[in-house]
Design goal:
Strand content: under 5%
Largest sheet: none
Helix content: over 70%
Shape: elongated
Number of strands: 0
Number of helices: 15
Radius of gyration: 26 Å
């Protein structure tokens, strides 16, 4: 029996190895097979860059519709034939588009859609092995939950993002600042102080050069969070003088930022924070003036309306006989709502 095997082995082994070589080449061909056209990923990079550029300057309903169309196209590409490497890139682009859609849905007044897209961005970022994307997704989720008066969920989102975000990235500063604001909204002054200190410490250790995010410098987003979020937090905690100081600093940061990094809606919210600080300090005239300046913004999205409602509500309760307070309330009541139409 062994003799027979000895005679047959050389021929069989050669045939098996020849067949194996052919199979290996087929394995390689299948691994490299893809239905993606040449330049598809480069095109997606440009598209996501354009959508991020348009976010603060174009009507949110228009950007939402165009971004959602591309998100659907990426979903179709993910279901088609592609290489493993291409798949990771497609997962990341899907996540980045969903992260932007989360903010746009928030701007258009749909927290349900915003949170759904934030979660989708996190899941795709995790599958792509992209911790930074996961962190940005949770940054969006933290803000949306805060505006929905769910500070515990906002805090949980910020902490989840911190487990994924690079520690020496501006995103880490934002997420610590998100945690500080959420703690204040939850009535936890010690948590606010602790998280704000962590944000300040993280800001000190940022590297001199930070990679751009689709052509945009992410550092101003950290600077905004480090000034604007504490202003909101101090208002929630009843620390009016601290809120005034933070809000004034936030406005100076916004106004000195490069044009490409300016955000009209964030500037409007900073003015409302400053208005609330003045109102708490007994100065309704300046509060009303700042409220009107906020509503003069070219981008009054749902978050601006929500904060303006906070302002008019506070003014009405504390200064019920002040004529300008009623006028500001009436102006806000007839202000046009954003639409996805």
């Amino acid at each position: 029996m062994l003799t027979g095997l000895t005679i047959a082995a050389p021929t069989s082994a050669a045939q098996v190895l020849d067949q194996a070589a052919a199979e290996a080449m087929e394995f390689t061909r299948q691994a490299e097979a893809s239905s993606l056209g040449v330049g598809s990923l480069d095109h997606l990079e440009l598209a996501v860059t354009d959508f991020n550029d348009a976010y603060s300057v174009m009507p949110p309903q228009q950007v939402f519709a165009e971004t959602l169309d591309y998100r659907r196209k990426v979903d179709a590409l993910l279901k088609a034939k592609h290489t493993h490497e291409q798949g990771r890139e497609l997962l990341a682009y899907a996540g980045w588009l969903s992260e932007l859609l989360a903010w746009l849905a928030h701007d258009l007044g749909s927290p349900r859609a915003g949170l759904a897209f934030a979660n989708d961005a996190f899941v795709h970022g995790r599958q792509a092995g992209h911790g930074e994307l996961c962190g940005w997704a949770m940054d969006a989720a933290a803000s949306i939950n805060l505006y929905e008066h769910r500070p515990d969920r906002a805090l949980a989102a910020a902490r989840q993002g911190l487990t994924q975000a690079p520690a020496t990235h501006p995103l880490a500063v934002r997420l610590h600042a998100q945690a500080a604001r959420a703690s204040a909204a939850d009535g936890d002054p010690e948590g606010f102080v602790s998280s704000l200190r962590a944000a300040q410490d993280a800001h000190q250790f940022l590297p001199a050069r930070i990679p751009r995010r689709f052509g945009l410098d992410p550092l101003p987003l950290a600077d905004y969070a480090l000034t604007s979020y504490p202003a909101t937090a101090c208002i929630l905690l009843g620390k009016a003088e601290d809120a005034r100081r933070h809000a004034e600093h936030a406005l100076s940061v916004y106004e000195s930022a490069p044009a490409a990094s300016r955000s009209p809606s964030r500037e409007a919210i900073a003015r409302i924070d400053l208005a609330l600080a003045h109102a708490q300090l007994g100065d309704p005239d300046n509060a009303v003036a700042l409220g009107n300046q906020a509503l003069d913004s070219e981008r009054v999205v749902d978050s601006v309306r929500a904060r303006a409602t906070d302002l008019t509500g506070y003014l009405a309760r504390r200064y019920p006989r002040h004529g300008a307070v009623g006028e500001l309330h009436e102006r806000l009541a007839v202000f046009p709502l954003p639409s996805t139409a």
